[in-house]
């Protein structure tokens, strides 16, 4: 356990401070940013431990202590430091803008609600962390994911059904958990006199440059321009599978290749990622090697390990930790490189002294990760010796990106419905199902598992952990595709722009950070047309190359 006495005494001292002299400001910021970094890392490591070992009583007790004692004290410390800095300086910039926004989010009566919110989130994580294959409790849910890539449809269907059966078996508890979270969050908003929790969530996420209407408009624009590409890929899938329509368990089956049959050991994954990163930028490989040496990778699934993947910043150690569940196929490379994009971003941001300047918005964080995925495509020769397999893998990468976008809009709009009392009149399943019908093409047939349609929300961890965090994936993905378009023509200049944008950390607004990278947060109609034209040309060229080889 970390020494709680230090942070408690610091808070008592700072409570009596109002402002400090300008010649003492740098020292004040440095001293307290180091302290905050140490406690932030302790909180993060506690979270990581629970995700890695959901059945560990010691880890769960430590997490409870973090939620009820450490985090409230840490948040109080951050408020004191921010208040003193704001009272001591006259300059206004993006960091002070964010600080004032966060100061406005505090209400003493919400402290207990925030603790309760953390405990409800932890309850959900414990529920899903203990889910296993209903037919073999020695296997985790994550271990079933590999079967979704199997050429045998009966195996894919069984895996899909078992995954959802596991979640549905705890649907009552998960539903109760989400309803309690919605009620808790609405109470938080009421105490801060916010119009709705959605308004409060946007403030908490630092969304000072766009609103809910921008999200809806963006979803409609992108859907309009990308649906033709998506339909063409799905038609190729139906042809490959010799089916008139696709089933929901067919989404990972490539119409181009069986490269998912590529067996990727843990050693292959690490060594291959090293080679790819070295080709993109040797410094990126160095960071990865350092993380390996520090034991900051947990890549393999096991019972009582949570699903999913993430990369967390460790500010005190000047490092990051990557958590994922590899399944032994090619996509493991994509996931690991994505998470390394976050780690690289953390490294660049950790160069800033002030803790607020190290804070990364989700929109920029996902942009960093998704751009690195696409930059890495030119280096996949380090994995594939066969040119045919290389081309097929690139086509599949484009297909999966385009397939992913509608799911982002579904989850985003689902959240808008959850926190709107006029729209949240149906069951969660009914709301989700309606959005699936709105954003899915008519080439997906759920008739064999109609009872599972609309259950997807059970698995969306963001609904519980980070409400309203999801549209960022689409904003970042479109921007990353535009970065790739530039990278294909000017790789050196584009990579430099990318690094310059990441180095800003939290010192610039989201639109300004994107601008430094050479892209826009909300692309115009003309920019979307240019992007889809580029993607069509890239895909056509790759298909042509594939046909020439065949």
UniProtKB/TrEMBL annotation:
Peptidase M3A/M3B catalytic domain location: 149-520
Keywords (A to Z) from UniProt: Hydrolase, Metal-binding, Metalloprotease, Protease, Zinc
InterPro entries documented for this protein: Pept_M3A_M3B (IPR045090), Pept_M3A_M3B_dom (IPR001567)
Essential cofactor(s): Zn(2+)
Molecular-function annotations in GO: metal ion binding; metalloendopeptidase activity
Cofactor comment: Binds 1 zinc ion.
Keyword Metal-binding: yes
GO biological process, alphabetically ordered: peptide metabolic process; proteolysis
The family this protein is said to belong to: Belongs to the peptidase M3 family.
Protein name, as recorded: Peptidase M3A and M3B thimet/oligopeptidase F
Organism annotation: Exiguobacterium sp. (strain ATCC BAA-1283 / AT1b)
């Amino acid at each position: 356990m970390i020494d709680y006495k230090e942070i408690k005494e610091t808070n008592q001292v700072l409570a009596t401070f109002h402002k400090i002299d300008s010649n003492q400001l740098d020292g004040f910021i440095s001293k307290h940013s180091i302290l905050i970094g140490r406690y932030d890392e302790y909180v993060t490591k506690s979270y990581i431990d629970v995700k890695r070992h959901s059945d560990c009583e010691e880890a769960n007790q430590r997490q409870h202590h973090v939620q009820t004692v450490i985090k409230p004290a840490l948040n109080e410390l951050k408020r004191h430091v921010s208040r003193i800095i704001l009272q001591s300086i006259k300059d206004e910039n993006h960091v002070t803008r964010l600080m004032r926004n966060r100061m406005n989010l505090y209400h003493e009566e919400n402290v207990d609600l925030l603790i309760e919110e953390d405990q409800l989130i932890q309850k959900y994580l414990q529920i899903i962390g203990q889910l296993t294959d209903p037919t073999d409790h020695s296997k985790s849910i994550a271990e079933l994911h590999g079967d979704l890539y199997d050429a045998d449809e009966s195996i894919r269907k069984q895996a899909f059904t078992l995954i959802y059966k596991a979640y549905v078996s705890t649907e009552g508890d998960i539903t109760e958990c989400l309803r309690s979270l919605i009620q808790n969050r609405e109470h938080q908003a009421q105490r801060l006199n916010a119009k709705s929790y959605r308004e409060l969530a946007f403030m908490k996420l630092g969304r000072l440059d766009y609103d809910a209407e921008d999200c809806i408009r963006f979803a409609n624009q992108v859907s309009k321009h990308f649906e033709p590409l998506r339909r063409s890929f799905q038609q190729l899938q139906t042809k490959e599978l010799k089916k008139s329509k696709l089933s929901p368990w067919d989404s990972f089956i490539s119409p181009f290749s069986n490269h998912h049959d590529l067996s990727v050991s843990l050693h292959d994954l690490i060594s291959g990622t090293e080679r790819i990163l070295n080709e993109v930028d040797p410094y990126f490989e160095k960071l990865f090697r350092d993380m390996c040496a520090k034991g900051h990778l947990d890549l393999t699934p096991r019972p009582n390990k949570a699903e999913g993947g993430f990369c967390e910043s460790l500010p005190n150690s000047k490092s990051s930790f990557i958590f994922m569940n590899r399944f032994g196929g090619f996509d493991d490379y994509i996931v690991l490189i994505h998470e390394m994009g976050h780690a690289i971003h953390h490294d660049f941001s950790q160069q800033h002294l002030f803790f607020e300047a190290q804070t990364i918005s989700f929109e920029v964080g996902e942009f960093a990760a998704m751009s690195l995925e696409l930059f890495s495509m030119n280096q996949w020769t380090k994995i594939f010796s066969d040119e045919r397999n290389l081309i097929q893998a690139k086509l599949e990468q484009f297909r999966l990106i385009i397939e992913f976008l509608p799911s982002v809009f579904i989850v985003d709009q689902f959240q808008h419905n959850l926190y709107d009392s006029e729209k949240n009149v149906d069951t969660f399943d009914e709301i989700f199902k309606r959005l699936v019908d709105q954003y899915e093409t008519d080439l997906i047939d759920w008739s064999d598992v109609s009872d599972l349609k609309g259950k997807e929300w059970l698995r969306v961890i963001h609904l519980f952990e980070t409400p309203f965090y999801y549209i960022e994936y689409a904003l970042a993905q479109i921007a990353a595709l535009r970065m790739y378009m530039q990278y294909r023509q000017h790789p050196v200049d584009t990579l430099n722009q990318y690094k310059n944008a990441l180095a800003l950390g939290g010192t610039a607004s989201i639109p300004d950070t994107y601008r430094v990278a050479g892209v826009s947060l909300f692309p115009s109609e003309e920019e979307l047309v240019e992007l889809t034209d580029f993607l069509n040309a890239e895909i056509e060229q790759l298909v042509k190359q594939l046909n020439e080889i065949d």
